[in-house]
């Protein structure tokens, strides 16, 4: 076979590889940001995926059923529907006399039912605790997520509602993972009058979150993470590379408590530190290493965070 034919074959293989990769990552990005019906195939544990399962995920994306709330039986829990760009559902625990109001925003892909332990902690210590379903999850409208971009508008919607519903209260925000990023973006864009900001495991940017995801499944960050980040923004109408939480942190002077579980695989400690270092107001960083594997309930378990949070906000 002539050198020219060999070069033609190599070129065809090379181009085919990149076309397949780009198309597969398009579908992968769509799956991550557009939820399926809640009874769809459950999201797999990334640590339990075999080689065949990983190949299927690379081609078609991770199964991503719409996050729904689990049943919660809690006395005094109130439900509200709040109108914004989309109708959002929130739960609220309201003591007779409050020290302030705490707005709690979950990470991806979780709902407000994972925030109940944390909400109860604030409530028993005298605070109104407002637990939020972002757009696309739980009792809120929609079936998609922008991984923090449009969710920042949801933060503003809930802040405005709380300001009207509890007009005498100072507002505290507590965001977890994606919820932390949405809080940072909303404060940056809207200059919200927040007494204290609490960030649990905030990522440095959407691009860094995507890189950490590929590291978690033992695939090279380049070129997969960059292509995926581009598609996630393109499909949802924004520049995903501009979703940069470090940039937002530089403009925030609100007193901020940053919390992080060291074994949380989706957010690296260096990203958390990059957020912390760029905050302009009074701040404190607390890390925890009690857990070998991250689970959402670890981030919301009151016995872990209570003393550190209360010392900072009171």
What does this structure look like?
The structure is a single chain. With 314 residues, the chain is an alpha/beta fold. The chain has 2 domains: 1-65 and 206-241, no CATH class; 78-205 and 243-313, Rossmann fold. Helices cover 44% and strands 14% of the residues. It has helices at residues 3-33, 51-60, 116-124, 151-165, 178-190, 206-216, 221-236, 245-249, 269-278, 296-300, 302-313; strands at 78-82, 88-93, 101-105, 128-132, 171-176, 196-200, 256-261, 283-288. The longest helix has 31 residues, at 3-33. The radius of gyration is 21 Å and the shape is elongated. The model has no long low-confidence stretch (mean pLDDT 88).
Can you give me a brief rundown of this structure?
The protein is of the alpha/beta class. 44% of the residues lie in helices and 14% in strands. Strand 3, helix 3 and strand 4 form a beta-alpha-beta unit.
Number of strands: 8
Helix content percent band = 40-55%
Can you count the helices?
11
Report the principal-axis shape. Answer: elongated
Low-confidence runs: none
Largest sheet: 8 strands, mixed
* The CATH top-level class label of the largest domain: Alpha Beta
Record the strand order, biggest sheet. Answer: 1-2-4-3-5-6-7-8
* H and E string: HHEEEHEHEHEHHHEHEHH
Strand percentage lies at: 5-15%
CATH topology of the largest domain: Rossmann fold
